[in-house]
Automatic annotation (TrEMBL):
Protein name (record): Spermidine/putrescine-binding periplasmic protein
Keywords annotated in UniProt: Periplasm, Signal, Transport
Gene coding for it: potD_3
Entry keyword annotation includes Protease: no
Gene3D superfamilies (alphabetical): Periplasmic binding protein-like II (3.40.190.10)
Principal location: periplasm
Amino acid sequence: MPPTNLPISRIFPANSTRRQFLKNSAATISGLAVSSCGWRLADVQSAPPVKGSADQLFIYTWAGYTDDALLDRFAEKTGIRVVADVFSSNEEMLARVQAGGARAYSIIYPSDYMVVQMTELGLLSPLDHSSLGGLDRLKKQFQNPVYDPGNRYSVPLSWGTTGLIYNTEQLKEAPEDWNYLWEHKKELAKRMTLASDVREVMGAALRMLGYSLNSTNQEQVKKAYEKLVELKPAIASFTTDAWRPQMLTGDLKVAMCYSSDANEVISDNDKLKYVVPKSGSSLWTDTLVIPKGAPNPEAAYKWINFLLQGDVAASLVERLSFSTPSEDAFSLLTPEVRENEILFPSEDILKKCEGVAPVGKFMEVYDRYWTQLTSG
């Protein structure tokens, strides 16, 4: 169960792909257009208005956060056909919404920090709680999150941590903290990856040095950058998703990743394990929101209420491998899933985690160091 001080924000991905789209089909994404099944790839360059229809719902979601079984079940229950466009980062999603996508979608799936940003930009509709059922059955810390007090604009869908996945057969000892990467950089040379994410990577180095993940102290951030420069020659790549096949084939020994991704990959190879570094890491939440000007808001509320149902949320945990904030869903999970510490880590682990909070204009400092680190 996560701590009561849930984070203000999730991540600021450079080009992350949180989860695999239609499991094991990442290689086909670039050419995918299967709207007949309810799936499409969004055209990020433009966002044409879409007229609302009582029997159609357009959603904009992370890859892998829904599947055909879910879409079919909703259609059978409501008579509403869902068309799901997918995005690979919060920034990609925001760019589309600002280009007119608010008129194209009834439901969007931003991470917690992006809820803050979209609220400040006036892009979200306040939720009518009288049209929602199940908010009172969320875990208490999700009923009044600091990124959206009172769930005025958002409903939490999933949450998780960031850590290290590693191959137990290829490492002489298991990593316990971020400093393992530095202490074993010769052994790990070109056999490890870090996320393609400035705040996650800089945050890991900051936590290792004993600083906040959200430091706005220029000297502290500089020290974190200098530590990463030391490690860079040993890093195979900065990637948020491409580590998956490489880890499964044994080409990588360790990779920085999200807990939901780790849990999914480990199910395919029991030689792999996941750890949240003991000096601390990030804790994230993904949500459901209704943008201003959304077509078919009635269908949007039906979708949110559908996902708040305990049996529906529980089926998503077991099929799509992410953690649920729903008490009802958690109670319906098998003991094996409830006791899975990758998806539901202990309170002691979660107390060491913090969210990636907005840092305002200081983000320019992070971006400058990130550019220097990843270029060349």
